Amino acid sequence: MRVLHIGKFYPPHMGGIERYSADLCAAQAARGVEVAILAHASPGQGMTRRFNNAGVQVHLAACHGQLLYAPVSPSFPFLLARLLHEFSPDLLHLHVPNTSAFWPLLVPAARRLPWLVHWHADVPLDIRRPAVRAAYALYRPFEQAVLRHAGVIAATSRPYLDSSAALSPWLARTHVVPLGVGPLEKVESASTGVSSSAVHWPGDGLRVLAVGRLSYYKGFDVLLRAIALAPETSLLLIGSGECDASLRALARELRIEDRVCFAGSIDDTGLADAYSRAQLFCLPSVERTEAFGVVLLEAMRARLPVIATKIAGSGVGHVVADGVTGTLIAPGNVAALASAIRRFADDAGMRRRFGDAGYARWQAEFTLDRSAEQMLGLYRLLVPASMHRAAAAPAASPTPARVEERDG
Question: How far apart are CA 221 and CA 232, in angstroms?
């Protein structure tokens, strides 16, 4: 079976969707599927790249920037047409939201193939940019056309599916396949972030970890205010983004800069080290833009108790078993977040129980192997049995080969 994934970005571009998509492709390749992915280079990288990574053919279209979060990439449709001819896939796996997932609608060779649409998130209409809400009126007809053409749709959680207005006409062909992360020992560094030696918690007390893009919807301003109310704690915040300067200014205003480390974007080795040394993980997101929370799975894999927010219509409340693997609080509630942090700081036994329960839940529900097997099951609904050659149990983990070509 040959599968062509259409993504938005690809690691080391930071993001849960990007990391999961790359890991899923590698897991499928380990199962004998011939896999290629077409995505965009990080914004500002005006060079088309082609390389092999973990048995996956990776094609990254030059990206000259973003317009309302949509990659600007004139070369993308031409690369799609070339791949359809050269790779000759049996099906397309479209990762959305992603405006480039609309191009297959215009390519006859793509329309003749079965499609699986992987619905990672709705376009966030609660976003603090009115232009995005206005642009959705233009985006929605193409979004619905893609869903109409899809043979199968994969949503990441039942709560998100049930609350999605965009998916509501297509429930009969939609299946829930939770995201997953692989065992920690299979994590390999492929990025160029800072050295892991730069990752540390300043000060003493409970070591709190938060990971994610420094964007408003992540609620890191709420976390900083909670840390100010929990003096026996220190925070390591990993990530970069448009709110970096304002968050640093807030830490200075709250006079907690001696207890907060802004680590920026770090490599996989440093990230794994941070998870191994943390004592508590926080995801304080404030909007449904946080559709699932892959970082929660990474924390559970590291046996960390978690604090997250109970966002209506998000998958976060499904991933975190409240009172078992972590604590859920109302979004934006500084006092509740500070109180939860202090409870974990005062009770090492509770941290250990919740961490062990989270690890067991990750193993039972959210491994990469489980997610990859469920996705292969959906492929079999779309592709004739005669094409299911070698898509079986995973082979030995392939050695990543990065034979790279570049086009100007």
Answer: 19
